[in-house]
Amino acid sequence: MKTIVILNSKGGVGKSNITRHLAVAAELAAPGSVVMCDTDPQSSLADWWNARSAETPPLAVMGISEFTQKQPALASRFGYLFFDTAAADAKPYAELLRAADLIVIPVVPSPDDVRSLSRLTLPVVKESGRPFIFVLSKARPGTQLLISTTAALSEHGTVCQTIIQQREGYAKASFAGSTLLEDEPSGKGAQEIRELLKFVKSRIDERTISEKKGKGLLNV
């Protein structure tokens, strides 16, 4: 099972929105292969799931400290776990991050968000030693703020070229327990989510191939 953790200590960056959209995109591509988990006390992902008419992807209920215990059972049933996190200190997630195949860090283009990221989130992420990417969220294409934020983030790691734009459809889908992939499957929002999932999978595959090659090396 591939574990994807969506993390940022700052609130309002779109973590839950990205989590549910990635999970639904992966579920549509491979039905029955995806599970989600919500550890945010605000329960945004759980509230969305409870409003949802579809039963998939399922939502696993667990605390951060229960992940190690429950992970084997989930791994026997699912191919992907998308983990939503709280807007809080990232340190309690340290053990989970070490088990992640990829850490997705949504960032709203703003100086405040970049500064907060450098203080509260990045040190814990880098300490985990796991691969991570930045995803620009709630962004407006072509703005100077977007360009400058992308440049600042690039100094710390990989920035996904697909940005999650500020769209009214995301809010409407959240209220209805759906996603743009289901509401507007041919729309631009659905396409940006599919592109994001493709990039996420490519980063996981790169890491997997690299690790396999490393294990296959012989000292002669």
What is the compact description of this entry?
This protein is α/β, with parallel strands linked by helices. Strand 2, helix 2 and strand 3 form a beta-alpha-beta unit.
List the helices and strands and how they pair.
Blueprint: E1 2-6, H1 15-29, E2 34-38, H2 44-50, E3 59-60, H3 67-75, E4 80-84, H4 94-98, E5 102-107, H5 111-128, E6 132-139, H6 144-154, E7 158-159, E8 164-165, H7 168-176, H8 180-183, H9 188-215
Write structural notes for this entry:
The protein has 220 residues and is an alpha/beta fold. The chain has a single domain, classed as P-loop containing nucleotide triphosphate hydrolases (Rossmann fold, 3-Layer(aba) Sandwich). It is built from 9 helices and 8 strands. Helix 1 packs across helix 9.
